[in-house]
């Protein structure tokens, strides 16, 4: 059973960089053809896809986030990480990681952007 667990700072100040990490167990982020997403849900709004990283390390990001989002991975720890630069209060959301497409989901981590 693949399990995902997000970890993040909880509170980030405006203009700083948000960093959240997803730790995967029961499966490998290098499994052929797998891809691993970041998705967020702002308060009172729907789900928003942020981007994903593939099993070979290629990344794709939502155009709406322009160049602020960056996804990386640490294969030795079976983790992948989202960094979102120059955050504003509009980036306040629950951040989810998903695996093998959208089959497996983490429980989500709340990130609030506030001074």
Protein architecture, described:
- The strands form two sheets. Strands 2, 4, 5, 6, 9, 10 and 11 form a seven-stranded mixed β-sheet that branches. The chain has a four-stranded antiparallel β-sheet with strand order 1-3-8-7, with no helix packed on it.
- Strand 5 and strand 6 form a beta hairpin.
- It has 115 residues and is mainly beta.
- It is globular, with a radius of gyration of 13 Å.
- The model has no long low-confidence stretch (mean pLDDT 95).
- It has strands spanning 3-7, 11-12, 18-25, 35-41, 48-54, 59-61, 69-74, 79-84, 93-99, 104-105, 109-113.
Strand content: over 45%
Number of strands: 11
Rounded Rg: 13 Å
The H/E string reads: EEEEEEEEEEE
Task: Present the secondary structure layout.
Elements: E1 3-7, E2 11-12, E3 18-25, E4 35-41, E5 48-54, E6 59-61, E7 69-74, E8 79-84, E9 93-99, E10 104-105, E11 109-113
Parallel strand pairs: 2-11
Antiparallel strand pairs: 1-3, 3-8, 4-5, 4-9, 5-6, 7-8, 9-10, 9-11
Précis, in short:
The protein is an all-beta fold. The protein has strands at residues 3-7, 11-12, 18-25, 35-41, 48-54, 59-61, 69-74, 79-84, 93-99, 104-105, 109-113. Strands 2, 4, 5, 6, 9, 10 and 11 form a seven-stranded mixed sheet that branches. Strands 1-3-8-7 form a four-stranded antiparallel sheet, with no helix packed on it.
For this entry, give a set of tags:
seven-stranded mixed beta sheet, four-stranded antiparallel beta sheet, 11 strands, globular, mainly beta, 115 residues
């Amino acid at each position: 059973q693949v399990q995902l667990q997000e970890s993040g700072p909880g509170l980030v100040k405006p203009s700083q960089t948000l960093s959240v990490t997803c730790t995967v167990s029961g499966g490998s982020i290098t499994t052929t053809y797998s891809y691993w997403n970041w998705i967020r849900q702002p308060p009172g709004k729907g789900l928003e896809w942020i981007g994903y990283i593939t099993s070979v390390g290629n990344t794709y990001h939502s155009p709406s986030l322009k160049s602020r989002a960056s996804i990386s991975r640490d294969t030795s720890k079976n983790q992948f990480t989202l960094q979102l630069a120059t955050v504003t209060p509009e980036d306040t959301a629950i951040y989810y990681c998903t695996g093998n497409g959208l089959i497996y989901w983490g429980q989500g981590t709340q990130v609030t952007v506030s001074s």
